Every structure is written in structure tokens, then in C-alpha cells.
Amino acid sequence: MELNAFNQGLLAFLEASPTPYHAVSVMRELLDKAGFERLDETHAWNLESGKGYYVVRNDSALVAFRTGRNDPAETGWRMMGAHTDSPCLRVKPQPEIREHGCFQLGVEVYGGALLNPWFDRDLSIAGRVTVEDRDGQRRDTLVDFRKPIATIPSLAIHLDREANSGRSINAQTHLPPLVMLTGGKPEKSFRELLEQQLQAEQPDLSVRQVLDYELSLYDTQAPAITGLHDEFIASARLDNLLSCYLGLQALLEADGEQPSVAVFNDHEEVGSMTAEGAQGPFLETVLGRWVTGEDYHRAMAASMMMSVDNAHAIHPNYADRHDSRHGPLLNEGPVIKINNNQRYATSSRTSALYRHLSDQLGLSCQSFVVRSDMACGSTIGPLTAGNLGVKTLDIGVPQLAMHSIRELAGTQDAHNLYQVLKAYFGLDGLW
């Protein structure tokens, strides 16, 4: 896929995916269109050579794979992983706050969100809802209000003269968004308002009551190509839906000869210790139903995982936060992430394989090492490597404003990494 088409597809994917549930729904549509068959974890599987399959767990995580023509016990699996979740604000179960003529929603911070950028944005709400229908059956459905329905107004500087030098944010009291005014309006619960929205979106869905939900607030500003020379991609959730998109496209366009796997876990931003997270058994379960016994261990020993998660580009206003020799630049190529304390799972062997592939394609790549006097973040890479015992590379596209409500990446880097991943999925031999 050429660069412009790739980036336009990325923008469409980002806009259609305000939550992990929506991201997985979009990925399912792309896989169905490509002829992949959905597998049910509660049913017996009969996998055929040369076909594509996918498995969904909790509607928020997905494993897609091509069985290929070769035996995984002989050639291993070519695997990549990313995560579907991003830091955000989640609506609480009893969220109604009615004070001073305002109707607000109680929210909980999900993950390590940068909170200041959430103020004064045009926000909407989306996620998964479980309802009881008129026949008394439970049904899961997605909801997306789409239009701006909420905002978190800043406190005027006249009432806080230290706002630009020392304002701190209390997540309990400062973040509830304003949804509407209550004066003269019939009092309704949030669940009743949610039921109204479901009926408006899905007239054929007969809802007796909303049983529960997992809903997130999100910024309604559309993703965009920005910069004087169109150098940047600006959007929410670049970390890590950008990696999900490029990984899925690489798998869809691979030649299908090699056994190849793409896993998209949920809950990376909160530790991954869930049934659908990278510390859970999801990927291992799928692989264990594909290949069993001694052959499974042979396959794993011959395999590799590319953990694809965005990296910290050097910020021109805060360059001192980087090791001066390991400050990745936007549009200078994907970033191999290295940490000798194993916060990243990269080894010289896995990084060498990536550099070799990148060189063969005439593409660039970079390296990131955190400053020796700063703590290092982590990814699903070490978790997957420790869980499966698989050789792993941590790599990702450089970006700015990570964990903000609107992040920034380069227009070249994701397409670069997609090309290398596509070649990796078709690689005849790994080692």
C-alpha cells in the first residue's frame, strides 16, 4: 500500500475507534472482508493449511493469524503484538452529579493519562453496553454518541492566579465533565439517557433496561495530517492504535506462506494482568490449540515476537529529557527500544534481524535508550517474552505528547514499519 492510501486508512481507523471495543470491531470487519474466518473459543477448532483465522476475547482483544503452508514446528511463528487501549477517562457506575444547576458525570482515570489537555475539549462518550432486551435476554452492543456532549471547563485564571505555574489536578473533584444544565428538565439517570441514545442509534434494539456499561470519554476532534508540509499525524490514541493498524495491514498483505500471528491485547496501560492482557493466557491459548505437545515447544524456540508500541521522540522544548545520542526524531524511522534492565525485551539478535530487514528495503531505523538517571517505561514485550519464552524485539514509531488527549507522530514512520513487518511476516527463515 502506498504512503497516502496508508495514512488515509490510518486516519479513518483512528476516527472509527474511540474505544478498544470499537477498534476490535473495525479490525473484525477488515479481517472478514479479507476472508479470515472467526473462531469461537467455546467450539472445537479445525484449522486448515494456508488459511486466515481470528479470535476475539472480551470484544476488546483479538488474535489474527495465517496458518501458512509451512509447519510451525519447523519454521516457527512470525509474531507481532500491540495493544488496543489508551489512557482516558472512564464513566463511573453511578456517575450522576447534580450540583449548582449542572449535570455532571463522575469519571475515573484509566491508565497514565496526561490530564491537563482534557480541559476545554469537545468530548463525547463511547464504549460497550450490556442490556436486557424485551425478551429478557442479555445483549452486548456498542454505543457512540459521536457529537460533542460534554466538556471539562478550566477554572478562570482570575480565580487561580497561580494556574500557569502551579495548578495541580484532583482527579476526583476537578475532572467530572459538564453534560447539561438541570434547570426545568425532568430528572433522569445516566442509564436512562444511555438507553435513549441506544434506541436512537439502533431502533431495532428493544431495551428493557441497561444492565451495565464500560464507557470512555473521548475528544471529538478528528484525526488530521498537520504541519506546513504535511509532516505530522495528530490524533488521539496514536498510542497504540497506530501500531494495531500497521500490524493488521502487514498481516493482511503478507504472502501467507509463513505461519504468522498478530495479537492485539487490551489493558496494557494498566498492567496487562487480565484475561485479555499480555500477562494473561490469551495468545498462549490460541497457539496451544494450533500446535500441541513437543511441536509447540519446537515452534516457540524457532519463533520471534515484535512488540510494536510507540516510542518517545525527542521533544525540541525538553531535549534534556533524552540521552543526547538516543533521541529519536520524527520521520527518521521506527525506533528499536533497548533497556539492559529488561524493561524492553530487545536483544542484539532480534534488533539485528530488524536492522537487516530494514536495510534490505532501503529504510531507516533509530534506537532509543532512556537516560541512565531516569526510570524506563515498559511494554507488552517483556510480558510476552516471559510468558511464552519467545525471542522478542521492542520497536515502535516515534511520537510526541504520549498519553495526551491529542498526540503527534510523523507521516512517514508508520508506513516504514508496516513495510518491514510485511516483509517479516513473509520471511522464509528467522535464524
Automatic annotation (TrEMBL):
Pfam families: Peptidase_M18. It comes from the Bacteria. InterPro entries: Peptidase_M18, Peptidase_M18_dom2. The keyword Aminoacyl-tRNA synthetase does not apply. One of its GO terms (biological process) is proteolysis. GO terms for molecular function: aminopeptidase activity; metallopeptidase activity; zinc ion binding. Keywords: Aminopeptidase, Hydrolase, Metal-binding, Metalloprotease, Protease, Zinc. Its EC number is 3.4.11.-. GO terms for cellular component: cytoplasm. Its cofactor is Zn(2+). It is an enzyme of class 3 (hydrolase). Belongs to the peptidase M18 family. This is M18 family aminopeptidase.
